[in-house]
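User: Need the bound-state model for S-adenosylmethionine:
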Amino acid sequence: MSATLKSLRALSVPTRLRIMALLERDELSVNELQEITRLGQSRISTHLGLLSDCALVRARREGKRTFYRLNPQANGTTGEFIQLAIRGARELAEHGGDQINLKRVVNRRREQAQVYFNQIAGRFDRVYGPGRSWQAFGHLLLRILPPLVVADLGAGEGLLSELLARRCKRVIAVDNSERIVAFGAAKAKKNGLKNLEFRQGDLQNPPIEAGSVDLVVLSQALHHAEIPAEAIAAAYKILRPHGQILILDLLKHNFDKARELYGDRWPGFAESDLHHWLEEAGFKKVEISVVAREEQPPHFQTILAGGEKG
Ligand SMILES: C[S@@+](CC[C@H](N)C(=O)[O-])C[C@H]1O[C@@H](n2cnc3c(N)ncnc32)[C@H](O)[C@@H]1O
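Assistant: Bound-state model below.
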């Protein structure tokens, strides 16, 4: 039988026209179609099978469920058949009732999605959200960055350097550990980041030319410096005029074991310490705030401090 005759035959049954009219705006599952039309599940499945064979509807599997919709790619004769079927369905006695039931089912679906968000309102930031992560937010924020030259001092293996290198013009990652520098450099190479260069050196006297970078980052590195004020002054030196410094560090804490567990030289810093050292180095527009607090004891808090080279 030709495709045209097959389609005409499929559309000769009023129930199939009803089904097609229901699939006009939204995709629906067999269960939903059953609830709307009050027809038996197997009858609906048979009708859908026939309509799919004629390419009048399309199926989409999602886990164990299958959703049906009018074939969005239908054109030519198939497209005309779909339009005729919808027009024909409007003349059927069941049409009004079908549309009322459809509205109810679609509204309930929408409400079910809202129930979840209503339940977690107030805790939303703390509960798991599929695909939502600080790493993803980081990538989003990076898109806003202009193409800067960045020095990441006390860079470790380059977690942040690598992220920055995906957007910035050039990133120089400095660390005083020979092994960490070797590892970070190999990883950057493996990841194809040609604009990320690792250099071994001290963050109090980084091996970077004076006045050559737009941004200096010190992420959880300053509390390892012998003399933090000296590291901040060194950052000032390597920045271009109007360059920025950004420091992420721990707010001063009483967790003495940090020295032994993490090799920390200082137990974090008071906001006033950072303020003083930044201004003393010559930085203007100094801004400091606590940006995070860990949920687990000892509840480390993170401060973000920044300033601009005058
Ligand atoms: C806690 S890690 C932070 C790594 C990275 N910035 C981050 O946020 O993931 C501290 C790093 O600073 C390095 N470091 C410690 N003292 C340093 C110094 N005086 N000069 C340069 N790097 C130093 C360590 O080798 C280590 O990789």
